[in-house]
Design brief:
With 185 residues, the chain is mostly helical. It contains eight helices and four strands; from the N terminus they run ααββααβαβααα. The longest helix has 15 residues.
């Protein structure tokens, strides 16, 4: 059932959102010269996949967890995209391909060993990673791997259709702060 809902909303979002996606890509091209960002992430059953997002950081920024990245790496347009969560829209392609769900644990980088270990213990990788979930609407990010893995496990154990739509609604209305970044030095 969830997969069918994911398919419906990813197709609808990509088709209806095409003008917005195109506009963001054009502005992103002028902002960074490379509006789409691709990064290897850990997916369901720990299989790697390539996540796509709109670029919010300067090209050449080290590929690492956001909370380890300096805030000065984020472009002004990138700050807007992050605040509005529009940088996540291209992930609808990952949802359509079946690599992600709209709701699930946020996919981590293969280098985030502490988080991977905490998720392994809690069987979090049994579920498709998602664009949003319980941890995101509660403002818990990858800088606290144990707490994040606990909330991921809690969400997986108790996820209902009602919760699925609640997390989407809360995310769309601005609940949750997204991943933190280190203050500029």
């Amino acid at each position: 059932m969830i997969r069918l809902i994911d398919l419906f909303f990813s197709i609808a979002g990509l088709v209806m959102g095409l003008p917005l996606l195109a506009l963001i890509a054009v502005i992103g091209w002028f902002d960074t010269g490379s509006p789409i960002f691709r990064q290897e992430r850990v997916g369901r059953h720990r299989r790697p996949f390539t996540l796509v997002k709109f670029r919010t950081m300067k090209p050449g920024t080290a590929s690492r967890a956001t909370h380890l990245t300096n805030a000065s790496a984020i472009t002004p347009f990138g700050r807007f995209l992050r605040r509005s969560k529009l940088d996540e829209l291209p992930q609808l392609w990952n949802v359509l391909k079946g690599e992600m769900s709209l709701v699930g644990p946020r996919p981590c980088l293969p280098t985030q060993e502490e988080l991977i270990a905490a998720r392994d213990v809690r069987n979090v990788f049994a579920m498709r990673p998602g664009i949003t979930g319980l941890a995101q609407v509660q403002g818990v990010d990858m800088s606290d791997p144990e707490r994040l893995a606990e909330l991921d496990q809690e969400m997986i154990r108790s996820l209902t259709l009602r919760d699925y739509f609640r997390y989407l609604f809360l995310t769309a209305t601005g609940k949750g702060a997204g991943d933190r970044v280190r203050p500029s030095s």
